[in-house]
Amino acid sequence: MPAHNERYVEIVKEYEDNRSNAAPVEYLVSKSLKTLYNAFWALPRTSAYDLHKPDILHNIYLGLLKHMMEWVQGFLKKHNRIEEFDLAWSSIGPYPGLAVPNKEYRATT
InterPro entries in the record, alphabetically (predicted)? Predict the structure, then answer.
């Protein structure tokens, strides 16, 4: 845990011990921090920073690609160009490291 976070945790605990004292909250707000409760802080012998974090590839990149391709397919269907896209997709030539598609795009989804 970064050193400054330990101080912030102490300030939050100070506030929880005496909620009538607004000084700890004002200090955190002056540092642009919100006083939200983090359930991971209460776990014994655990640091929230060491817990599992989802990887960026599967959660963001592939999700964005899927969303983008759904949008592209809708656009192509609306403009009656999906057949041309399927033809272009299935005619992609070989390239090192690229798996050449053997069927049209609509058949892969």
Answer: Plavaka
DSSP 51: S
Whether 45 and 64 share a structural domain: no
Which residues does 25 contact at the CB level (< 8 Å), separation at least 6? 15, 35
* 103/78 same-domain check: yes
**Do 61 and 99 fall into the same domain?**
yes
Residues 63 and 22 in one domain: no
What confidence tens digit (pLDDT) does each residue in 15-72 have?
A: 888 878 888 888 888 888 776 667 777 778 877 777 777 777 777 777 888 899 899 9
The 3-state DSSP class for residue 98 equals strand
Residues near 48 by beta carbon (within 8 Å), at least 6 away in sequence:
38, 40, 41
Containing domain of residue 37, as a range?
Answer: 3-50
Spatial distance between the Cα atoms of 91 and 100, rounded to a whole number of angstroms = 9
